[in-house]
Amino acid sequence: LAALAHEVRTQIHERSKVNAACYDAPEFLHNLVESVRSTSRSWQSGLDPDRWVYYFIRSIDEEPRIAERLDKTIEHVFRDRVPFAVLNAEGSTPFQRALFATYFNAYMSTYLAILNGADPLPVPTMSWLKNVMKDIPRAEATVSETTSRFSIYDRTSPEKARRS
Hints:
- By secondary structure, the chain is mainly α.
- It contains 8 helices and 2 strands; from the N terminus they run αααβαβαααα.
- The protein has a two-stranded parallel ribbon.
- β1, α4 and β2 (84-88) form a beta-alpha-beta unit.
- α1 (2-16) runs parallel beside α5 (94-115).
- The longest helix has 22 residues, at 94-115.
């Protein structure tokens, strides 16, 4: 689901014009939960509203131990503490579930843009920035003799690999 999460993040950036971040489970457990818990305490005290909505993309394709850890994290860190949503990818095969989630998130990011009063199609800042950068010359791609000598590796013959 990491590639799908990356796609969702880029859809939200480009279509919705909203900041987004994505984390892979279980790694996010080490990096995110402390800040979420701290922020949720401030938010519940009325001191510092949490401006993030946490969004979990779930699938039956998850590794069982990671799925259980996510369930516990949602229950103990997120539920009733901070705004969050869960998308359960639907379909009979992993491919169908990936397509379901991809299409759902395309619609969701477009709807989010509309809710925020943004047009999901144009990307004026990126178009402007590309125009600014168009005069920066590209470096020519060259392959040095040393690089090309070692670019072919024959696993069946270490002698051939050393000589090529």
